[in-house]
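Quick one before lunch.
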Amino acid sequence: MKYFRNWAIEALSQKIQAIRGMNDILPQQTPYWHKLEAILRQLMASYGYNEIRMPIVEKTQLFKRAVGEVTDIVEKEMYTFDDRNGDSLSLRPEGTASCVRAGIEHGLLYNQEQRLWYMGPMFRHERPQKGRYRQFHQLGVETFGIATADVDAELILMTARLWKALGINGGVRLELNSLGSNEARAEYRDALVAFLTPIKDQLDEDSQKRLCSNPLRILDSKNPNTQALVADAPKLADYLDAESKEHFARLCQILDANGIEYSINQKLVRGLDYYNRTVFEWITDKLGAQGTICAGGRYDGLTEQLGGHATTASGFAMGIERIVALLEEVAPIELTDADLFVVALGDAAEINAIQLAETIRSQLPSVRVRTNFGGGNFKKQFKRADKSGAVIGLVLGEQEVEQQQVGVKFLREHKEQLMVSQSELIETLKQILNLEK
Ligand code: ATP
Ligand code: MG
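Model of the magnesium ion complex:
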């Protein structure tokens, strides 16, 4: 009994920590997320894309069929569990499968064009490290019903515009490839297997396994020895069908005309099964090994594979954490809690301070106002004002209340304090804070 009690107390007092690889996003980081999210919403609107929101849990079968049974995601990375009624469910490891599922289910795809985006958490049981987490966030953009290369180009143009808007365009580069039609890819696959089979023993272990299941993935093996071996392998470009070649040439032409630089990487094949024709990745060297910040391509076969009518499609997914990490590095935000801090001494002044703060919030909603709570002398209150990062302190004592005035103190500049009538405060603040239109 005593032993049990000790154990119970110990267990109760132990700290419970977050799950490895699933991060809290703390107040110092949320301003980066807000900035990114606001710019993304604006960007999507300016290209005429509409938001769709899907559940974060789906039937496991959806991902098996869409992403592919022999991909890393489905083989090793999914959070899969049985629902109470025995159905196998999975936390979504990516959004495209759900988006296509929703599109088919609600009749959004058949004989229609759609330009869609979504943003939210994805889950993969990977080894956590910088830029690689078990819960992470993606912006996904998907287009349906447009077969031509112009829409692939548009997806790339909008991401290029984003890097500029965020001020990170200096640190990113674009890699492109075409996987051709499914038939061309199958033919190439056979040629690649024929080339690799005699030297199978020299490949790394993962690549040996992939030789049967997903041989194209061997091309982007990180193993130096394997890389050297595949250098002489047949080239995908030599197997492209004429239509895919033309499609790819048109994509390159549009990018050239818009001043988008890229390099063609013949070994870029992407990990998922569903891609055909265009594939692309945006990569940065500033984040170490986890350098891909955005990846996508065309997936014309997926809708049919998931039971819908054949619908051409093209899209990309962007890793939000990696972009936030880039932003923190190259475009730091100065973090403050308030623009304006109201200090007050005495009961009447405190009440007056709260009323004034409320008036400012009504009249100047873009100004962040904090009011001192919890009392303390002026010195203590100004310390709090300073800590908040506010540029202006409003000061109220007994005398100010009596005369319906308020002190305006400049907290970040050497400028004399003003005394203004409370009825003129809003006008004064507009001028000081440059809020006049
Ligand atoms: P990687 O090669 O880095 O494993 P991936 O090919 O598995 O990426 P996608 O499935 O194409 O990635 O996802 C698109 C983007 O989402 C990636 O380019 C990356 O920015 C981000 N991403 C993928 N997995 C993670 C993760 N575990 N943690 C954080 N971001 C991720
Ligand atoms: Mg991965």
